[in-house]
Amino acid sequence: MCIMSQDWKTSVTVAAVIERGGRFLLVEEETRDGLKLNQPAGHLDPGESLVRAVIRETLEETAHSFEPRALLGCYLAGSVTSPTGQHPDGNITYVRFAFTGDLGPLDSGRPLDTGIVRTVWLSADEIRACPERHRSPLVLACVEDYLAGKRFALDALYTHPSALMPGALP
């Protein structure tokens, strides 16, 4: 029998792993632990498919459109704790669906999402060299899986229509 803690939560997120010429598109964002690097990523919103969520998050955080071509993988990671050992939001397990695909042109008039300072292009070696700057251990895990050639067809993901209509019965 498994007994779960009352303060345990899951959070579904999406991320875009985008590579051009051996460099990966990352965002530098303000966090409670200072400036951190992450793929364009964010939370799944109510009424949204995973594919729609990664398209939206990439646009909001980079001002580029994004066309997902493949699912890179599904990842789990626990919340990063503060120096006191407690995460302010409780014990959270993040479920990340990472995608790879094509980056569209920059919309130079579009502001970046709140908290995003800038976009940066880094090589895999540059990303490996600064794990303390990563928002999550999943940043490097996704890059390594991309480089290993992991790809899954987008039709591996199924969205029942009830998920697109919050409050609807399945």
From TrEMBL:
Span of domain Nudix hydrolase: 7-145
Superkingdom of source: Bacteria
Protein's UniProt keywords contain Hydrolase: yes
Top EC group: hydrolase
Keywords: Hydrolase, Magnesium
Cofactor section: Mg(2+)
Gene Ontology molecular function terms on file: nucleoside diphosphate phosphatase activity; ribonucleoside triphosphate phosphatase activity; thiamine diphosphate phosphatase activity
Gene3D superfamilies per UniProt: Nucleoside Triphosphate Pyrophosphohydrolase
Coiled-coil ranges per UniProt: none
EC number(s) per entry: 3.6.1.-
InterPro entries listed in its UniProt record: NUDIX_hydrolase-like_dom_sf, NUDIX_hydrolase_dom, NudJ
Family: Belongs to the Nudix hydrolase family. NudJ subfamily.
PANTHER family listed in its UniProt record: NUDIX HYDROLASE 23 (PTHR43222), PHOSPHATASE NUDJ (PTHR43222:SF11)
Subunit structure: Monomer.
Name of the featured protein: Phosphatase NudJ
Organism: Cupriavidus cauae
Gene (UniProt): nudJ
